Amino acid sequence: MKGTALSRAALPRTRLTPGRLALAVLAVLALAVTALVAAPISLTPSAQAHGWVSDPPSRQDHCAAGTVSHDCQGIQYEPQSVEAAKGSMQCSGGSRFTNLDDDSLAWPRTTIGSTHTFTWTVTANHRTSTWEYFVDGQLFRTFDDGGAQPPSTVHHTLSGLPSGNHKILARWNIADTAMAFYACIDVNVGGGGGDPTDPPDPDPGECSAAAWDATAAYLGGAEVSYQGGHYRAKWWTQGEVPSESGQWGVWEDLGPC
């Protein structure tokens, strides 16, 4: 017992003064603030990584390359981030990068042939339902991935493109969310310039509108096909079956394809 008492007595005692207590509290707070600030910084790159059409250069690709002089609203720093709800026909998808929708701006036009391969640069491999290409607002070609994860570069070859100047909207529909990624490409097919020819008519019995997707969110005016019928959304909708909408429902029946 005496030995124990002597050893305890020999230990130095540190007094916890008010000043030292304050310093300790400040140190703990500083560590907590540092952790909170560092956490979102480390997550930012993956949260903003998705994909865009890089060949032929899309509008956001031109912004990123600095080949346009007008305001790009910050898309030059993140061309992969043009993300919005499925079903939009806007170059921005209805997202914050609205300058991408402005056809009056001097967007560079790329000359291509009637058959051309379009390339997506993918920075996050989201499971994919479909890739869609619209020529001047008309569905031209759909590629179905069936929920697969794409590689870092995706190539789609479009054949039979109409001659002349066109705006091609590329839409990447994600399989497990209601979101899609958008890119518009300004092209001159055939190099002749002048007035564009009309896109080819769809085959009889084939709808030009994209197939209805139960997971997609559609804005008013969006058109879809479903079981051989053609429908237009009257307002925002998601998960409402077009054929069950009825006269007063969200979907307007435009007749058979």
The tally of strands reads: 15
Number of helices: 3
Helix-strand sequence: HHEHEEEEEEEEEEEEEE
Strand content: 25-35%
> Residue share in helices?
10-25%
Which class do the helix and strand fractions yield? alpha+beta
Summarize the structure in words.
InterPro entries: CBM5/12, CBM_sf_5/12, Cellulose/chitin-bd_N, GlcNAc_Chitin_IntDeg, Ig_E-set. GO terms for molecular function: carbohydrate binding; hydrolase activity, hydrolyzing O-glycosyl compounds. One of its GO terms (biological process) is carbohydrate metabolic process. This is Chitin-binding protein. There is one protein chain. Strand 5 and strand 6 form a beta hairpin. The longest helix has 30 residues. The protein contains three helices and 15 strands. It folds into two domains: 152 residues, chitin-binding protein cbp21 (Coagulation Factor XIII, Chain A, domain 1, Distorted Sandwich); 56 residues, Seminal Fluid Protein  PDC-109 (Domain B), CATH 2.10.10. The strands form four sheets. Strands 2, 3, 5, 6, 8 and 9 form a six-stranded mixed β-sheet that branches. It has 257 residues and is an alpha+beta fold.
SSE diagram, text form:
Blueprint: H1 2-10, H2 18-47, E1 51-55, H3 59-65, E2 83-85, E3 110-112, E4 116-122, E5 128-135, E6 138-144, E7 153-158, E8 164-174, E9 179-189, E10 210-211, E11 217-218, E12 223-226, E13 229-233, E14 237-238, E15 251-256
Parallel strand pairs: 3-9, 10-12
Antiparallel strand pairs: 1-4, 2-9, 4-7, 5-6, 5-8, 8-9, 11-14, 12-13, 13-15
